[in-house]
Structure formats: C-alpha cells, structure tokens
Amino acid sequence: MSLEALWQQSWQEFYEAALRELPGFVLQRLQNPPTVSDHDEAMFDIRVTLLLWPIEGLNGYVDALDGWIARWNLQDPSSQEADTSVWPHDIPPPPLEPVGVWEAMLQRALEPGFTGFVAAGVLKLMAMARVASRYTSQ
pLDDT per residue over 66-96, tens digit each? Predict the structure, then answer.
C-alpha cells in the first residue's frame, strides 16, 4: 500500500470514528442541509443563531474549534485541498469541550429547520474534536 493510500485510510478511519460519535438523528440532519443561495449570508445566519443561544461557553468554543480545524486542515481526505503532510496522530489536542455544551447541542439539534441543522453541524465539529482528543492522547 502506498504512503498516500495509508494516509487516506488513516483520515477515513478518523472521520468514521467521528461520525460514530453522533446519534442517528444528528446524522440525518446533516444529510439534509437547508438550501442556501448565498454562502456569506448563510455563514452570517449561523453566527447569529449561535449568538442567540444562551449556552455558556458555546461561542468561544465554536470559535476555538473553527480555528483549530482550519489550522490543521481537518477536511475530507478525498478533497482536492487535503494536506497529505498532516496525519491524524500529528494534530495537537483540540480546545477543551465546555461542560454541558454537547447535551445542549443535542437538544437544539431536535429543533426543526435551520436551527436544528446548525446544532447538528456544531455536534459534528465537536465529534471530530472528541476523536482527535483520543488520537492525540495515544
């Protein structure tokens, strides 16, 4: 097996582990994203939605997760932008998950429409961080 194939398999296992962290209803929400015509407007709407939720530590944590994910190129291994120099075990530990945020996001993910989808997206980021924590502690 080539080094690139091993790299791809390693990241695939990482993403599969992250998806296993998520309950089935969250996976369903992620499979049916709302239709948006303007990416920038959708990102603004996501930020407003998060700011409206009175969940202690949520917004700082989501900002820290976004920065951590962007810095370490945690994207789909089949992506054209994938960085083959970074392996799952090489990334530093993610930001610490605030107590109660996972449970609060699970409750929000049950809400209909865009709100539930935003919560499901946050849970996916959190699942990747949880898996990365296990990888980096090995």
Answer: 888 877 766 556 666 666 677 788 888 899 9
